[in-house]
Amino acid sequence: VSGEFELIAAIRERIEAAGAPRRSPGLVLGSGDDAAITVRGGASATSVDALVEGVHFEVPPFTMREVGHKALATALSDLAAMGAEPAEAYVQLGVPTGRGEAELLELADGLGTLAAAHGVAIAGGDITAAPVLIVAVTVVGVADDAEALVLRSGARPGDALAVTGALGGAAAGLLLLERPDLEASVGREVADALRARQLAPAPRVEAGRALADAGATALIDISDGLGADAAHVAAASGVGVEIELARIPLHPGVAEIAAAAGVDPLGLAAGGGEDYELLAAFSPDAVEAARVAAARAGTNLTVIGTVAAGAEVLLRESGGGVRPPEGFDQLGPWRARADPA
Amino acid sequence: VSGEFELIAAIRERIEAAGAPRRSPGLVLGSGDDAAITVRGGASATSVDALVEGVHFEVPPFTMREVGHKALATALSDLAAMGAEPAEAYVQLGVPTGRGEAELLELADGLGTLAAAHGVAIAGGDITAAPVLIVAVTVVGVADDAEALVLRSGARPGDALAVTGALGGAAAGLLLLERPDLEASVGREVADALRARQLAPAPRVEAGRALADAGATALIDISDGLGADAAHVAAASGVGVEIELARIPLHPGVAEIAAAAGVDPLGLAAGGGEDYELLAAFSPDAVEAARVAAARAGTNLTVIGTVAAGAEVLLRESGGGVRPPEGFDQLGPWRARADPA
Q1: Within 10 A of A156 (CB to CB), how many other CB atoms are there?
Q2: Of A25, A58, A128, B334, which has the maximum CB count within 10 A?
Q3: What residues of A are in contact with residue B220 (Cβ under 8 Å)?
Q4: Which residues, other chains included, contact B17 with Cβ-Cβ below 8 Å and sequence gap of 6+?
Q5: C-alpha to C-alpha distances, A179 to A34, A58, A199, nearest whole angstrom
Q6: Alpha-carbon distance A306 to A155, whole Å?
Q7: How close A319 gets to chain B, by Cα (Å)?
Q8: Other C-beta atoms within 10 Å of A147: how many?
Q9: B221-279 pLDDT, tens per residue?
Q10: Which residue on chain A is closest to B337 by alpha carbon?
């Protein structure tokens, strides 16, 4: 590598070699100038997300490829949570001295492969030295009009609350990465699947669009944890939420890993976060059609609770007890030391 | 601060208190949901830029306010370099444990004040713990259509090459920050102005739009250094560039600081970077009108060279010699240690 611009060119080449398109509909100028140019009507949804080494991941257990994949995946998950169709991504890389060009190209490969899968053009970026590896991603998605996008704020008392896929896998995967001995409780194949939920999550882009089309009144992705994200919907919608913990679909292997580790499987599913499934509210009479739409988009949709009047977020145990929502705090390490009180 | 969401709310409040608008034209949903929503026709220009503590700044000499200002300023400068009208910004903050809430609110104040000055809505963001302070900004600007935006690639042999404002101030300001004794050569007032060029640069947003309207064939902001940025224009346009160093307008005080420090003032002006002035190419018969347009936008426009056939970038000394272009390498610290060869 003879300089910044040669490295950028090599990264761009690897992203394209992975199949990421040079253009998305409406992108008339991609990376290489002072800014990218898009021309299109309709509505755009824009979201930013960042992964920081030592906070969100370590290499290992993550490979550089998985870091690139996950950085884009978490950003695309926010577009899924609007029901938007991904169009472009912009990538800001911070690279520490310990990472050579070959590793950065692996990261580009992971990012480019996921971009290819979703037809996302990497339309711009920025690269700089940094003390740790940082991948900050801005994504832009599109929809015919603003009404086609689903906010957190539309849930109404009486709505059903449902989740895509199954929960707890990412948290169980994290446990497995910390304690390889737990693998014996589920076997290699299930353990691999659980680790993949943590290392290379799949954003529910198609399901998000399907649920939006099916009339979701509120939509959010489960990144902070089911309880915390349900609380976001409740706060934004001015409603309460009741979730029956026993109805939460558990990812295969979560129960076994939890038992082997001596932790509560529902804690992993409701508080663990990073599953990047979708939580949606629907008028009760729209649920069946939504389930069919989700199935067409490749995932289950499971009703786990209801939207209520008030403002309380209740996670009901099958025995009748309730527990408070908890979730991952992005600022945990910062708060723990910055505010020792 | 009791958590991530309270801190985000406090930052958002401070940005609005500084006068940043809640909405820009076309922004129908601002921060707080999974993504912001815009609805508009015409063309959009999108660019990303990041400032990393220890690479781009240290606190001190920067205040937190100046860090917030400069992070947005450098991003807006990329929109100026397209001739776009700034509309929204998205801000990703990485915060180390050593920075308390009050400092982060100062940063928000600097960012919000500049956003207010340019009518930019802070439409979203992300905050996370990080080992050093990181401010990554995505900006979106608008124009009536893609043809109204000016790329780097339109310069033609025979065009005049011109710069706004004056150069070398940011590099001289950096010298002053490293060596306060140099202040005696220019006095306090000029020294303050030079330091401000480094600490709180003003993006040439209005001038950029004026130069685009006046028919600039190519446009770039001078962030890497005049020589390096001229080389970007040359490469993108498939042309050569000749700059007469003696014609470069020097910022007041640069000559004196350079003399006191024993360095070449033209080195500061042509290689120093971070001036965030604009470099534009014009058909010779468009130069006079462009000068008038720039003056209306509050700045000078000075012809410093010409666009030539070929691919060479020549910086001509008044004695007849030439020097190669040089500039700031964002990856300097990375390359120095990652590729010791």
Answers
A1: 14
A2: B334
A3: 34
A4: B109, B112
A5: 46, 15, 15
A6: 10
A7: 31
A8: 10
A9: 999 999 999 999 999 999 999 999 999 999 999 999 999 999 999 999 999 889 999 99
A10: A97
> How far apart are the CA of A260 and the nearest CA of chain B, in angstroms?
31
Q: Looking at the complex, report in whole angstroms how far the Cα of residue A188 sits from the nearest Cα belonging to chain B.
A: 33
Which of B151, B302, B309, B167 has its CA nearest to residue B227? B167
Using DSSP's 3-state secondary structure scheme, residue A125 falls into strand
ipTM of the complex: 0.95
Whole-angstrom distance, CA of residue A74 vs CA of residue A71: 6
Cβ atoms within 10 A of the Cβ of A262, count?
6
Give pLDDT, residue A319.
85
CB-CB under 8 Å, A43 with B37: yes
Percent of residues, chain B, with pLDDT higher than 90:
90
Sort B132 into a burial class: Cβ within 10 Å, 0-12 / 13-18 / 19+. Answer: buried
Q: Which residues pair with A242 in a beta bridge?
A: A306, A314
Question: What φ, ψ does residue B202 adopt, rounded to 5°?
Answer: -105, 115
Give the span between the Cα atoms of B226 and A7, in whole angstroms. 21
| Beta-strand runs (E) in B160-226 | 160-164, 218-221
For chain A, which residues score pLDDT lower than 50? 1, 337-341
Q: In what order do the strands lie in the sheet with B278-282?
A: B218-221, B278-282, B160-164, B301-308, B240-244, B313-316, B322-323
User: Do residues A161 and A154 make contact, with C-beta atoms less than 8 angstroms apart?
Assistant: no
Q: How many residues can be counted in chain B? A: 341
Q: Which residues of chain B neighbour A152 with C-beta distances below 8 Å?
A: 33-34
Taking one residue from A and the other from B, the number of pairs with CB-CB distance under 8 angstroms is 255
Q: Is B335 close to A1, i.e. CB distance below 8 A? A: yes
Neighboring chain A residues of B52 at a CB cutoff of 8 Å: 94, 128-131
Q: Do B38 and A52 touch (CB under 8 A)?
A: no
Cβ A43 vs Cβ A144: under 8 Å: yes
Question: How far is CA A313 from each of CA A305, A323, B90, rounded to the nearest angstrom?
Answer: 11, 9, 30
Q: What is the pTM of this model?
A: 0.95
Distance from C-alpha of B151 to C-alpha of B82, rounded to nearest angstrom:
6
Q: What tokens appear for A313 in the block?
A: 């977020």
Q: Residue B162, SS3?
A: strand
What amino acid is encoded at A22 in this protein? R
Q: Which residues of B touch A48 (CB under 8 A)?
A: 90-92, 124-126, 136, 138
Cβ atoms of B307 and B243 within 8 Å: the answer is: no
Q: Which residues pair with A44 in a beta bridge?
A: A142, B38
Phi then psi dihedrals of residue B214, to 5 deg: -80, 5
Q: Residue B278: its chain A contacts at CB < 8 A?
A: none
